[in-house]
Design goal:
Layout: E1 10-20, E2 26-36, E3 40-45, H1 51-58, E4 66-71, E5 74-76, H2 81-87, E6 89-92, H3 104-108, E7 115-116, E8 119-120, H4 122-135, H5 151-164, E9 169-173, H6 181-196, E10 200-204, H7 208-214, E11 217-222, E12 225-231, H8 237-245, E13 263-273, E14 279-289, E15 292-297, H9 304-311, E16 319-324, E17 327-328, H10 334-339, E18 342-345, H11 349-353, H12 360-365, E19 375-376, E20 379-380, H13 382-395, H14 412-424, E21 430-434, H15 442-457, E22 461-465, H16 469-475, E23 478-483, E24 486-491, H17 499-506, H18 514-518
Parallel strand pairs: 3-10, 3-11, 6-9, 9-10, 15-22, 15-23, 18-21, 21-22
Antiparallel strand pairs: 1-2, 1-4, 4-5, 7-8, 11-12, 13-14, 13-16, 16-17, 19-20, 23-24
Helix pairs in contact: 14-15
Length: 524
């Protein structure tokens, strides 16, 4: 294999990488992966395909059982992330690694603080931040606190942190997951500038349209093995998804027009203030009807998460009313809310959606073990439970050894399928789906979206909160846009709006009239 010697164009090569975890799971098997200097190279595959493990090996988080890494033609041993940074390899994680209470400048120089008379020189840190910000056209306010800046600016700070440490290869893990179309466009312009300057970018994403737009080449992983490398211009989105999953995948959601009935979920004048005294939800009202999917778009931090958690009882509402099928659940406990027919897919599948140290069976029965159908003579009916769980594992295509597998040993997509299997099989009337396909592959996403539409067709009312605007538009029947804790727009027909328009309302550049927005309440 071409190892990136001075006579050729490759800056980085990974040869015959094999990584086996202690439970015997083979995450990478004989993987060969090479990137050229000055290219944007996509790494794609289903959840559990081995992408994250391969990058953890490259960045020193994991050590492989077999294989070698060559950087600029020389074999290197990367034992930890600091070693990777020393060689010039940096990683920007999907979940930001920033300290919210510190300023941009303080975050940028963390661990490399300039000193003056033995003390931290904050003025110099601000100056250094401004210089590197202007050098790479990633303009940020050095003295702004991280907790006060928009998501798109946090992404810039993460990239600047890596560039500040002198890297030549940047690994970007789902960099656009929480960005608006406008912020994504700006990020792509900045990445292209870095490419022109000779930097190399490894771009991990499930958004195939973005890969087609920004990347030069791609490598596909499936079941821990490379299934091919290709020039992006020579391959279609459909071909990419087929290589990832090993079958034909429907990239567009196929659904009949909604036939909405009575309003099943009604939220009136809902208000919430967080622990810092900030009004996060500002007296909003809306309704979701039987047989309807209402999508919620918005930049993270504009109240969407709080709305979903108030409705499902995770945090208490402070003002307003919540009614499900006419029943006031404003002060109800979680079990009463669930018993009233409310199902919840949390945006954080590991903290609120599942218990990692529990089995698949335990996770699925956790909300139904007390019900009559799963009890016999005052004891749990384990035969019935086993039958039910095994059926759901098969119906939802959960890849596992058996029902006794610990959830934490599954891939992200399969963990989400466990959550979805439990929630969707609970006979819900109202479904609160918060980021149901975030960070999972096209195959699992396709499956979950189809299930949401099927449940809508069976009469459920669905509130879909998603940072994926393509998903919001394609899956939803109608859409509201959140901005600064308020509803900024309501679109009764999701098919008549595009991502750029949603982005304008998400960023606060536009706002509809109170009369237009009021239509989402469905006053009767």
């Amino acid at each position: 294999m071409d190892r990136g010697t001075p006579e050729n164009e490759y800056i980085l090569s990974m040869e015959h990488i094999t990584k086996v975890y202690s439970n015997g799971f083979v995450a990478n098997k004989d993987v060969n992966f090479s990137v050229k200097k000055g290219e944007i190279h996509a790494l794609v595959g289903e959840n559990g395909a081995g992408k994250s493990t391969l990058m953890k090996v490259l960045f020193g988080h994991e050590q492989p059982e077999e294989g070698k890494i060559f950087f600029k033609g020389k074999e290197v041993r990367i034992t930890n992330p600091l070693t990777a940074l020393d060689y010039g390899i940096g990683m920007v994680h999907q979940h930001f690694m920033l300290v919210p209470s510190l300023t941009v400048a303080e975050n940028l120089v963390l661990g490399m603080e300039p000193k003056k008379r033995g003390l931290f020189d904050y003025k110099k840190a601000v100056e250094m931040t401004r210089e590197i910000s202007e050098k790479y056209n990633l303009i940020v306010d050095p003295e702004a606190k991280i907790q006060d800046i928009p998501v798109g600016f946090k992404q810039k700070v993460e990239i600047l942190k890596v560039l500040f440490r002198g890297v030549e290869v940047l690994i970007l893990d789902e960099p656009t997951a929480v960005l608006t179309p406008q912020e994504t466009k700006e990020l792509f312009a900045e990445l292209l500038n870095l490419k022109k300057a000779g930097y190399t970018v490894i771009f991990i994403s499930h958004k195939l349209n973005e890969i087609k737009e920004i990347c030069d080449r791609l490598t596909v992983l499936r079941n821990g093995r490379v299934t091919g490398t290709a020039d992006v211009k020579d391959i279609t989105e459909q071909e990419i998804s087929n290589r990832m999953v090993g079958r034909n995948v429907m990239l567009n959601v196929d659904k009949e027009p909604a036939k909405p009935g009575e309003t099943l979920l009604r939220v009136k004048d809902l208000g919430y203030m967080d622990e810092h005294g900030k009004e996060v939800v500002k007296g909003i009202s809306f309704g979701v009807r039987k047989g309807e999917i209402l999508g919620v778009a918005g930049v993270e931090g504009n109240g969407q998460r709080e709305i979903s958690e108030i409705i499902t009882g995770l945090i208490p509402r402070q003002t307003g009313e919540i009614l499900v099928n006419g029943k006031d659940l404003s002060k109800a406990e979680i079990r009463e809310i669930r018993s009233s027919g409310v199902a919840h897919i949390s945006e954080d599948r590991m903290t609120y959606g599942s218990v990692g140290d529990a089995t698949i069976e335990e996770n699925i029965i956790s909300e139904r073990y007390y019900k009559k159908e799963f009890n016999k003579n005052g004891l749990l009916d384990f035969k019935k439970i086993k039958e039910d769980v095994n059926r759901l594992i098969e119906d939802y295509g959960i890849k596992c050894d058996n029902k006794d597998a610990l959830v934490k040993t599954l891939s992200g997509g399969n963990i989400q399928k466990v959550v979805v299997a439990r929630e969707f099989s609970s006979g819900p009337q109202v479904i609160i789906a918060n980021q149901p396909t975030r960070g999972i592959d096209v195959g699992a996403s396709e499956f979950i979206r189809k299930k949401l539409v099927a449940l809508r067709d069976e009469g459920a009312a669905v509130l879909l909160i998603s940072a994926d605007l393509t998903e919001v538009i394609e899956v939803s029947d109608s859409i509201i846009v959140m901005c600064d804790g308020e509803i900024a727009a309501y679109f009764p027909d999701a098919s008549l709006v595009d991502e750029a328009t949603l982005g304008e309302y998400m960023l606060g550049l536009k706002r509809q009239s109170a009369e237009e927005i009021g239509g989402v309440y469905h006053a009767e």
